[in-house]
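Sample intake sheet
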Amino acid sequence: MEERRTIGYICPQCGQAVAEERTAFALSAGPQAVRCPCGKSALTMETDGLQFRVEVPCGICGGSHRAQVSADAMLRGKGIALSCPKTRQLCCYIGEEGRVRAALKELEITAGKWKDPEASHFADSLIMYEVLSELKESAARDGISCACGSRAYAIEVRPGAVDLVCRDCGAKLRLPAATDEDLDSLCCQYRLRIPGRGGR
C-alpha cells in the first residue's frame, strides 16, 4: 500500500483545525495546497526532490512561516512537527493520520491560549493548566460533543474559564477554571456536552 501523509495546521483566521491526507506520490509530483474550509488560509508546499519548501499559516502568532524539510522526513516515518519561530510553539504537523489529529487537538488548546491576550493572566495558572490537561484527555477519548449532534468544536481560553464552542451551531459551554472546586467538578464529568442552540 502506498505511503500516505496527513498535513495539519490551525487556521489563523477562523481557529479551525485543518487536516488533509495526501499520498507520497502526490506530494512528490508537484506543488500542493491544504486549504481551510473558511477559504482564508492555505498551507503550501513544493519540492525539488530532495527538500520540501513549506509555508505554514500560523494559528499561534497569526502570521505565516517558511520551512525546509527533507524529502525523507516528509514522506516516511512517524512524522514531523514545525514550530512558530516567534513563540517557539509547535504550529504544524505532518505524518501519520492518528498522530497528526491527536496533535491538532492539543494545538487547538495552545492556539486558544495565544488568541486572547488576557488569557495569559489566568486567575490561577496551575488550575488552568490542569483544566486544559483534563480537556485534552476528554478529547482523546472522544468525550466532547454537542446536543446538535456535532463533535466539531473549538476551545477559547479566558482568564478564569474555558469555553467549548460548537463549530456547527455556535453553541457554547463555559467551564469555570479558577479554583480547586472548578477542577474537581470537571474531573467528575466523563463526558462533556455543549447544550446546542437554544439549550441551557
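Comment: The chain has two domains: 4-104, 116-194. DSSP finds five helices and 13 strands in the chain.
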